[in-house]
Amino acid sequence: MPEFSFGDIAVYAYDMIGWALVTYGLDPKLVVIIQKFLAAFLLANFALLTPIFTIWLERKIAARFQDRLGPNRVGPYGLFQSFADILKLLTKEIITPSGADKVVYFVGPILSVAPVLGIWVVIPFASTMIGANLNVGVLYSVAIGGIGTLAIMMGGWASNNKYALLGAFRAASQLVSYEVPLILALLIPTLLTGSMGMQDIVLAQDTWFVVYAPIAATIFFVSSLAEIGRAPFDILEAESEIVAGYHVEYSGFLFAIWQLGEFLHAFTISALVSVLFLGGWRGPLADLYPILGIVYLLAKTYFVYFISMWIRATVPRIRIDQMNNLNWKFLVPLALAALVLVALVDKLLPASLAGSARAWAHFASNVGLMVIVFGMLRTESRRLQNLSLPAPVAAGH
To answer: Cα(280)–Cα(265) distance, rounded to whole angstroms?
Structure first.
């Protein structure tokens, strides 16, 4: 029977299940497989059921921002509204367009959810709770997240609809473009840690990396919003131009799966921001009581998620040219400059300087970079304003 680790309830229960199965005569290798499947089942259900709550939360918070009540009829405070929507979508007819590639058409929405679900495998919930502690967790999350772009192209192409196809092309262009600054921002916590393992990055944050690299944290968050197509980057679903984008021909539960992937992705990127830049599960007594680690991680994740909801409820949609200019003319050069700056500062700082002093030195360098960047933007803005002014009228004319 395994030794009891005080406070580590989840790991103890996990080991107890294995001990009980072995006691009943099962092969130890089979027991390990059963344990892994059980852990995967619990993790997958946690991730897949979370959007039921977050969809209600988004509706209520958006309503408050817009001076409305939001859902308030189905259940107390409208809590059961999401269940009513699920029931409605389950009973709706799934209409397949004539001429659609049915196999690709049905696989597309499933493939949009699967990679997002796969990211949760490498997210550490506590010091002893992680699906798979890969030493290339950051690379894995980027690689598997890119499958979502393929799913969108499949949905738009297979629908046999020109508007869906245009929406898929626009979405692929946006997603591929914003992966560049996102990956550049991801390199900074990897550089500061010396590892691509998610657990290693969390353990290295005696001081949160958002202090070390606030520019990288902001770029990662903004690029992630563009990756999931949330406002103000929801031009890929511009109703006035391309109806509803790549999923315009989907109905019933297939449409629900697309929406599940979008809302799950939004919550997942909030968890990634928490792990990479806000210390993840770390907090007071989290090492002694892993259950507290889960609480800290979820609290930070919901905080980041609230910011994304705030932006969605208040910031208007930007045009496609503005979105591309923001990416290629601002975020990508800024991410490159921030990466070089962090590498140089980290190399130049004396090895004896450690802890919060090192973090605040990095923070000061980031502030200096932003002062230079905003100064350049101000100069360029004035230059453009002067070009747009009418030429002075000559005297006597």
So the answer is: 18
